[in-house]
Amino acid sequence: MAIRKIARMGHPVLRQKARELTVTEILSPEMTSLLQDMIDTMNDYGGIGLAAPQIYEPIAVAIVDYQEDHPRYAEQTQKQDKAAENSSLPFTIVFNPKVTVLDATEQSYWEGCLSVPELRGWVTRPKKIQIDYLDIKARPKTVIAEGFLATVFQHELDHLDGVLYIDRVKNEVGQTKLAFEEEYSRYWAKGSEEDENDEVDVDQLSEEDDLE
Fold it and tell me: What CATH number is given for 12-188 in this structure?
């Protein structure tokens, strides 16, 4: 298969609403090939999730591969998600997902994105969600995600609506938490943030931060 180029912020494909797929499309050989490209690309870039628009395919499919014992995230998830109903799950492919908020309690994490390189932003999202979707065999499925996993899903599925994480960074004059990675590592990472949540990246793994 192939490692695809990642679309970066500013390209129109990242602002399009992704088209939903038919059952025939989901079951097609072409989709199997595209999914393998997505997996290869995600693994090559060291991510834990990827949405099709990030590789210039404006269709409603995303992949998530996150475990709470992930070596780069174990400390954060063990601390933050002990009471979570579902804080990790096996590799998952979601087609035509629909998100329902189950617990609107706010939680915040530093997020980064392959499509927004060299930046980090402090993003607040609902704590617990339900995702209804079609799986790789076009069967209806449901997953409930809580804690950091809920953030991972919301980050990836935002791409299908043409939304980037920077759109959700609270923009207050003099208080906007948006940083270049070097400054993030120097001034914000490793416990320098006083908020109740730890700093963790969503789909971009930083070489400068040991916890990622």
Answer: 3.90.45.10
